[in-house]
Automatic annotation (TrEMBL):
A Pfam short name: Methyltransf_7
Keyword Magnesium: yes
UniProt name for this protein: Uncharacterized protein
Native organism: Digitaria exilis
Top-level division of the source organism's lineage: Eukaryota
Keywords: Magnesium, Metal-binding
Family to which this protein belongs: Belongs to the methyltransferase superfamily. Type-7 methyltransferase family. SABATH subfamily.
Taxon lineage: Eukaryota, Viridiplantae, Streptophyta, Embryophyta, Tracheophyta
MF terms (GO), sorted A to Z: metal ion binding; methyltransferase activity
InterPro entries cross-referenced by the UniProt entry: MeTrfase_7, MeTrfase_capping, SAM-dependent_MTases_sf
Length: 315
């Protein structure tokens, strides 16, 4: 007769920045399935699972709820899964103290809480139309973004450290760079988008003053920067930092310029609409498609990879 032992009675899993499409439940599905399979294999009574999905309040949580219900139904055959939606910024406390066992943030913590204050206050544009001026100000812009990322990510780690149980696990993946190959790279994954908007300025679709006061609150750190911030914050042990290609050759060959344009629109539409108004979005999408089709070199995010970090909360 199979002997079932119960290791832990409940496990809380949180996804930070879940978004709203089918991707909203993709990661938790993998985690939940892995836990149930492990329990079946080890002949353990499965724990009660509680899944918490977080994103900013403007996220389409109605859509998330529909995906959650479908996911819950699929998981029923394995065991009980309770679900909840937690709206709010992950730069604030979201969950109660020492309550979360596993947290992940996929492709979300490269979004800063806001653009660097020193650039905004100093009226220094993130992207100068003039090539010489842009090169000259480049280190200043980069440093301001790097400082802001350090401040935000330190806060993110500190908040999650309060919410995770001792020994709790956190997995983060975000676009960034490998320090070993960093020569000539920008650490600003939005460079190509700024180039698109600048093209729209030159055609009179967008006003120059508007672009000069537009900042994309996003930063791609290097693996070395990430490691240093995590070590300095000191709440977590680093298990692993891995880098992998954003797209493999198969992805590259199957992605059309239209798909690239739609992806850029999906990612940047909210902040573009907020700053420039809804009328420019169609033209933005067309401009991206045109440049991808033409193979404009400024669009290729040289050296951009996905960095995945696995952490354990110190006991
Ligand atoms: C590119 S989507 C990633 C979605 C999903 N995690 C995935 O891997 O496909 C980034 C998500 O992060 C969310 N996000 C950005 N800043 C956030 C913040 N401060 N707090 C919570 N969510 C945030 C955005 O609203 C967006 O839904």
């Amino acid at each position: 007769m199979r002997k079932f032992t119960n290791a832990i009675s409940s496990i809380v899993i949180a996804d930070l920045g879940c978004s709203s499409g089918p991707n909203a439940v993709a990661l938790i599905s993998v985690a939940v399935e892995a836990i149930f399979r492990y329990c079946a294999l080890e002949q353990k009574v499965p724990p009660e699972l509680c899944v918490l999905l977080n994103d900013l309040p403007d996220n389409d949580f109605n859509n998330v709820a529909k995906h959650l219900v479908a996911f819950q139904k699929d998981a029923e055959c394995f065991g009980p899964v309770l679900t909840a939606i937690v709206p709010g910024s992950f730069y604030k406390r979201l969950f109660s103290s020492s309550s979360v066992h596993l947290a992940f943030a996929s492709n979300s913590v490269h979004w800063l809480s806001e653009a660097p204050e020193d650039l905004m206050k100093g009226g220094i544009p993130m992207y100068d139309a003039d090539d010489d001026l842009r090169q000259e100000r480049r280190p200043l812009v980069l440093e301001a973004y790097a400082r802001k990322f350090r401040k935000d990510f330190t806060l993110f780690l500190n908040l999650r450290a309060q919410e995770l149980v001792p020994g709790g696990q956190m997995v983060i993946s975000l676009p960034g760079y490998c320090s070993s190959e960093s020569a000539g790279q920008s650490n600003l994954p939005w460079d190509g988008i700024a180039f698109m908007l600048n093209d729209m300025v030159s055609r009179g679709v967008v006003e120059r003053e508007k672009l000069d006061s537009f900042y994309i609150p996003m930063y791609g750190p290097s693996d070395k920067e990430l490691r240093k911030i995590i070590e300095d914050e000191s709440s977590f042990t680093i298990n692993n930092i891995l880098a992998h290609e954003v797209m493999n050759d198969m992805d590259r060959s199957s992605i059309t310029p239209k798909m690239m344009a739609l992806a850029a629109r999906a990612a940047y539409e909210p902040i573009i609409v907020q700053h420039f108004g809804a009328t420019v979005v169609e033209e933005f999408e067309r401009t991206v498609e045109l440049h991808v089709r033409a193979g404009t070199p400024q669009l290729a995010a040289a050296g951009l990879v996905f960095l995945s970090v696995s952490l354990t909360k110190k006991v």
